[in-house]
Design a protein that fits this description.
- The structure is a single chain.
- This protein has 223 residues and is α/β, with parallel strands linked by helices.
- The protein has one domain (8-216): Rossmann fold.
- Helices cover 55% and strands 14% of the residues.
- The chain is built from 11 helices and 6 strands.
- The radius of gyration is 18 Å and the shape is globular.
């Protein structure tokens, strides 16, 4: 259960994320203790069906939901810092956010590539910018572990692990067509863009996770 007196960590989980957590006790504990964990992708929805759990009313992926969080930050006057992606990408994403919402305050940006001996200076930059919301895109489980370890030091009250959202927002990768998003097969479009990097995630990690869920469901039904 999340500590309500501590900064809130928000995570998005898909089948790949949950499969990673099954082999990583530290990551699993971080997800269990997060303030909010949103369902991302058809794999999680299929798992809920297999386990005879209530179906999710919507797919709350980071690329669609995070902009709404940014809109809320704008309305409430929260300062947003963007950390992640390759050098220059976070700054480009910030420019696009402000074009869409001129009232949004970006307190700063920094790439996700920095040496271990630079961590303290990055934390200081986020803290000195009086950041309220910290958006981190470093991939799973690195971004969640980074937030778990450093969020309190940054002074931000809300930390969100967003994966490739910063790249999408900067135009590095295009989104899938709307019809693919509605059919929940955006993953197939993403795989076509980065087949080498994403093949294992979608064609090995995801099926293994669903196989594990199916086996668990079978055990429960025969118990």
């Amino acid at each position: 259960m999340a500590d309500l007196s501590a900064p809130a960590l928000v995570a998005y989980v898909n089948a790949h994320t949950l499969e990673l957590s099954s082999h990583d006790p530290e990551f699993k504990k971080i997800l269990q203790e997060a303030a909010i964990v949103f369902n991302d992708g058809i794999g999680v929805s299929l798992a809920a069906i297999m386990l005879r759990k209530p179906s999710f009313p919507a797919n709350l992926n980071g690329t669609d939901l995070t902009p709404r969080i940014l809109d809320m930050a704008s309305e409430l006057g929260w300062r947003v810092f963007i950390l992640g992606a390759a050098p220059g990408v976070a700054a480009k994403a910030a420019q696009n956010f402000i074009k869409k919402n001129p009232n949004l305050t970006i307190s700063g940006t920094h790439s996700g590539y920095f040496r271990p001996d630079e961590i303290n200076s990055v934390i200081a930059q986020i803290r000195d910018a009086r950041t309220d919301v910290l958006i981190v895109g470093m991939g799973n489980p690195k971004q969640e572990k980074w937030l778990h370890q450093h969020l309190a030091q940054t002074g931000a009250k809300l930390g969100i692990g967003v994966g490739a959202f910063i790249d999408f927002s900067a135009g590095v990768f295009p989104r899938a067509p709307i019809w693919m998003q509605k059919l929940k097969i955006e993953w197939l479009y993403r795989m076509s863009q980065e087949p080498r990097r994403l093949f294992k995630r979608y064609f090995i990690g995801g099926p293994i996770f669903l196989s594990r869920v199916a086996l668990n469901s079978l055990k429960k039904s025969t118990a």
